[in-house]
């Protein structure tokens, strides 16, 4: 359990943070303010084939079967009542073994997270898994009455549904991702906002509780703020302290860095 202040930063990381200044920190949730993404079936199946051909060529998945299980999960329930368990068969068709020591978790640092993972090439995010790759940035929901197909005109916002079809899928995917974590993991948080660690976020409310202290060696927290501020949270103040307390209570070993990447 240590705090770290790095004495040197590579130019590429400085460029990343500089770029980060002009990009708004993105929220965790994808807001479904429009209808189902047009051509959803072709996009999902196409991404699946791209994944097994280019991203993980040694993997073997039945992309058509995955789509059928996904479609059935969404169609057989009303649009605001698609529960996590409804996706069980789809997730059963997409098993994946993740490499220890490479997983990157994030909250309200979406754009920087993808850039950080791309530059270092040593991290895997949820979006790098098959399910994350297939459904990233997509929206879907069924018609008001079940078994009527997808609604391409309007989907409810997450906050208006008890069991939103998009939220339920990502909640299960996040839980699976965290439960598979082993070795050292990294958590990237936003130091320029209040409540960088939020128990209502996907990381704070789902992934953190799914981490296994017997499988995870260290939780390496990285707090990144806008170069021009505001500097609201750090390893020693704000909600980051709450995260550290949770980790300590659950028996995790941790480090925290808030000076640079």
UniProtKB/TrEMBL annotation:
<dbReference type="GO" id="GO:0005886">
    <property type="term" value="C:plasma membrane"/>
</dbReference>
<dbReference type="Pfam" id="PF02267">
    <property type="entry name" value="Rib_hydrolayse"/>
</dbReference>
<dbReference type="GO" id="GO:0030890">
    <property type="term" value="P:positive regulation of B cell proliferation"/>
</dbReference>
<dbReference type="InterPro" id="IPR003193">
    <property type="entry name" value="ADP-ribosyl_cyclase"/>
</dbReference>
<keyword id="KW-0520">NAD</keyword>
<keyword id="KW-0808">Transferase</keyword>
<feature type="signal peptide">
    <location>
        <begin position="1"/>
        <end position="32"/>
    </location>
</feature>
<dbReference type="GO" id="GO:0061809">
    <property type="term" value="F:NAD+ nucleosidase activity, cyclic ADP-ribose generating"/>
</dbReference>
<keyword id="KW-1015">Disulfide bond</keyword>
<protein>
    <recommendedName>
        <fullName>ADP-ribosyl cyclase/cyclic ADP-ribose hydrolase</fullName>
        <ecNumber>3.2.2.6</ecNumber>
    </recommendedName>
</protein>
<dbReference type="GO" id="GO:0016849">
    <property type="term" value="F:phosphorus-oxygen lyase activity"/>
</dbReference>
<keyword id="KW-0378">Hydrolase</keyword>
<dbReference type="GO" id="GO:0016740">
    <property type="term" value="F:transferase activity"/>
</dbReference>
<comment type="similarity">
    <text>Belongs to the ADP-ribosyl cyclase family.</text>
</comment>
<keyword id="KW-0732">Signal</keyword>
């Amino acid at each position: 359990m240590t705090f770290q202040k790095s004495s040197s930063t590579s130019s590429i990381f400085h460029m990343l943070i500089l770029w980060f200044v002009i990009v708004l920190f993105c929220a965790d949730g994808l807001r479904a303010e429009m209808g189902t993404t047009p051509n959803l079936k072709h996009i999902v199946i196409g991404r699946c084939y791209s994944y097994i051909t280019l991203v993980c060529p040694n993997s073997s998945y039945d992309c058509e079967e995955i789509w059928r299980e996904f479609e059935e999960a969404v169609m057989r329930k009303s649009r605001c009542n698609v529960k996590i368990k409804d996706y069980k068969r789809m997730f059963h068709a997409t098993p994946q073994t993740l490499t220890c020591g490479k997983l990157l978790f994030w909250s309200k640092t979406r754009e920087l997270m993808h850039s950080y993972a791309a530059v270092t090439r040593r991290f895997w995010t949820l979006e790098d898994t098959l399910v994350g790759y297939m459904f990233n940035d997509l929206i879907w929901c069924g018609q008001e009455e079940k078994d009527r197909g997808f609604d391409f005109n309007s989907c409810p916002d997450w906050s208006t549904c008890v069991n939103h079809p998009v939220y339920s899928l990502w909640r299960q995917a996040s839980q699976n991702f965290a439960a598979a974590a082993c070795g050292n993991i990294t958590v990237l948080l936003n130091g320029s906002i209040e409540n960088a660690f939020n128990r209502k976020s996907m990381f704070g409310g789902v992934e953190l509780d799914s981490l296994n202290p017997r499988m995870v060696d260290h939780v390496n927290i990285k707090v990144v703020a806008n170069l021009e501020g505001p500097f609201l949270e750090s390893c020693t103040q704000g909600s980051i302290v709450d995260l550290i307390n949770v980790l300590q209570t659950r028996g995790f070993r941790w480090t925290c860095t808030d000076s640079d990447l």
